[in-house]
Amino acid sequence: MEIAGKKVTIIGGQRSGMALARLVVCLKGIAKISDQNREESLAQEFKEWATQYNVDLEFNGHTQKFVQDSDLVVISPGVRLDSAPIRWAKENNIPFLGEIEFAAQFCHKPIIAVTGSNGKTTVSTLISKVIENAGLKACLCGNVGFPFSDYVLNLEETDFVVLEVSSFQLESILGSDSPIRKKFDIQGFHPFIAVILNFSENHLDRHKDLQEYFMAKKRIILNQGPDDYLVLNYQDKETQKLATQSKSHVVCFNVPDENKILINPNHLAVLEVGRVLKIDESCCRAVFQEFKGVEHRLEKVRCLNGVDYINDSKATTAQSALWALENIEQPIVMICGGRDKNIDFTVLADKVRQKVKSMFVIGEARAKIRQAFSELVSLEECEGLEEAVVKAKENSSKGDCVLLSPMCASFDMFKDFEERGRIFKEIVQKLD
Fold it and tell me: Which CATH superfamily is domain 7-94 in?
C-alpha cells in the first residue's frame, strides 16, 4: 500500500492515534489527527513532534471538512463504525481502515492473533514468552498495551508478531469481497494463527447485541486460508461454531481427556499454538512454571495484617470477575463497579453468595450492582476507590482477601483500567 504523499486522516488521537501518526510520517505520508478530546489530552512531547513534522491536529470533535480532505481515513479502536467521520468517508468514497489492519499492510512477519472475551492478555503474553524460550524472537503488541503501528516497520529480527486483538479492533477488518479493499488494493488482515479463547457477554455498550459482538470476533478468520491455523476452545459452544466456517486448519484446546484432568485453559491454548509452531511442550511448561501473571490481572499487591490485597483491575466483565472468584480460595471482600457495559452481573450470583463476605461498589454502575447482589451479600456504595479500599480494610480479617475486580469499564473515573489498577496499588501501599 503506497502512502508516500497521501493525506492520511487518523480519527482518535490517543495511544493508537499517536502511533499511527508516527507510522504515516515514517512512510512519508501526510498525517492528520482528529480527536474528540481537548488539546490537553495529548502529551506535550507528542504535540512538539507533530509540529516538527507538520501533523495537522484537530481537537474538541471531528469536522466534515477535515475528514473530506483525505486520501485515507484510519480509525483508532475507540471509534465506532457508525460515527460521523466514517459516514463522511463513505459519502466521499474515501477508504477507511482500522489501526490493526492499516499496520498489517506493512507487516512481513507471521502474525499470531489472540482474541476472546477473557484471557487475551495472559495468553498473548504466554505465547510471546514461549516463542522467546524456544530461541526465537516475538513482538508482543496490540490490545495488550503497545500499538502494532509502533513496531511494524522494525521487525527485521522478529520471527513472529503476537497480537492481542479486541472486538473493537476486529470489527473494521475488510473481507476479500469488500469494495474498498478491491478498489484500493488493500491486503486484508491475515493471521497465520488465529486464537479464539472464549465468548461471553461483553461490550454491549458498544455492540448492539451479542450477535454483533460475535460477528466482530469472527472477523479474525475472515482472510485466513488453508495454510493458516485456527485455534478454538472445544468447550465453548459459540466459538466451536466457527470450526465449520473456517478455511484454515482447525485445532482445538480444552478437550476433556480420558482422565478428566482439569488444567488451566489458557495454558492449553498456548500448548496448541506451541504444537503448531513445533515448539516442544517442555518449553511451554517451563514458561508456565515461571510465569507470575500480568499486571492488573489477579496481581498480588501486598499482605497486610494477614489480608491479601489483589489487583484485578483488568477484569472488566462479569465473566472475568467470575474467574477471579473461582480461583481465590480465601473469603473475599470485593471492590467493584465503574461504567456499565450493559452486561448481566447476576452470572456471579452463586459465587458471590458462596465466597464474598462483603462488597464495596463505586462508579456509574453502583445502582445496577446493588440490585444484582444486595440480597446476597453485605453491600455498601462508596464515592470513590480510596473510600472503598479503606472500608474494605475495616471489614476484612486475617485470612481474607481484598479483591478489586470491577466487572466494569474504567472510563467514568479513570483514563483506563491500567490507571485504575495503579491507583488501587498506590492506595493499598499507603495503608497501615
Answer: NAD(P)-binding Rossmann-like Domain (3.40.50.720)
